[in-house]
Write a structure and sequence with these properties.
The protein is an alpha+beta fold. The chain has one domain: Immunoglobulin-like (Sandwich). 34% of the residues lie in helices and 32% in strands. The strands form 2 sheets. Strands 3-9-8-5-6 form a 5-stranded mixed sheet, with no helix packed on it. It has a 4-stranded mixed sheet with strand order 2-1-4-7, covered by helices on one side. Strand 8 and strand 9 form a beta hairpin. Helix 1 packs antiparallel against helix 2. The relative contact order is 0.16. The model has no long low-confidence stretch (mean pLDDT 80).
């Protein structure tokens, strides 16, 4: 498996979250996070390997897409992401707990609401156009984060 920025980001976030839950002795949550690691890592490894072999077979060049993962719990982790402007980008949201506030995210500037089912990856893609900052919140606007496209 090739370690990309996305896989490293997901690994770091899940490791930090797992460490916190183990220290707090929240064993069911820790087991759930370990299962999530398997649900995320295995498909990533399989799809990445398949995509790379398809690209090599056809001689295609893989497009550069900036990717970052955000865990949605009692806060967005991490709560801000920085991407290069002019390059397509993708955010992967993963909600691992229940609650009214985090069942969806809202991008006010885009007038967009995106549902976040528990335990499922939700991908949000951006064209990466101009330099800008996009804020996102939970439904009740208690949790906040932003994506910054800069030069």
């Amino acid at each position: 498996m090739e370690w990309t920025a996305a896989t490293i980001t997901v690994a770091i976030i899940l490791t930090l979250t797992l460490g916190r839950t183990v220290m707090d002795r929240q064993w069911p949550k820790a087991i759930g996070i370990l299962l999530l690691v398997g649900l995320i890592a295995v498909p990533m490894m399989i799809s990445r390997r398949t995509a790379q072999s398809d690209l090599k077979q056809w001689g295609a060049v893989e497009p550069a897409i900036q990717t970052a993962a955000i865990i949605v719990d009692t806060a967005f982790v991490p709560d801000h992401i920085q991407f290069a402007a002019g390059v397509p980008a993708k955010l992967i949201f993963l909600r691992n707990t229940g609650g009214e506030c985090n069942e969806a995210i809202v991008f006010p500037a885009l007038n967009k609401r995106i549902e976040l089912p528990i335990g499922q990856r939700v991908e949000v893609e951006f064209s990466g156009g101009e330099v800008r900052r996009l804020d996102f919140t939970c439904l009740k606007r208690k949790m906040r984060g932003f994506v910054e496209f800069s030069t």
